[in-house]
Amino acid sequence: MTYQNDIVEQAAALKAAGKRVALATVVSTWGSSPRPIGSQLVVDDTGAMQGSVSGGCIEGAVVHEAMKVMEDGEPRLLSFGVTDDQAWEVGLACGGKVQVYVEAVE
């Protein structure tokens, strides 16, 4: 597993290499969320990522939103959990809830 300091260092290295970068951070959890508050994921402008905010359940959706954040510069607060409305909606299979804040790294 990648530790938080590694993620910050990776983000800095990507910025120094001229890449656009977004950082996703778990800011709230409930129930059996697979990652604790403070877990992070760094995404570069090619969609490559390092770290984890859910252990694989929502990373694809977070990367998609991170790409938008790098385009428009607007941070986003994303919420994921189990839904009964649509079985195909992105969510956490473990039954918990998680909120992830995604921001561009300047």
Automatic annotation (TrEMBL):
| Domain (XdhC- CoxI): residue spans on this chain | 15-81
One Pfam assignment: XdhC_CoxI
The highest taxon in the source lineage is Bacteria
Kindly provide the name given to this protein in its UniProt entry.
Answer: Sulfurylase small subunit, molybdopterin cytosine dinucleotide biosynthesis
State the organism named in the record: Skermanella aerolata
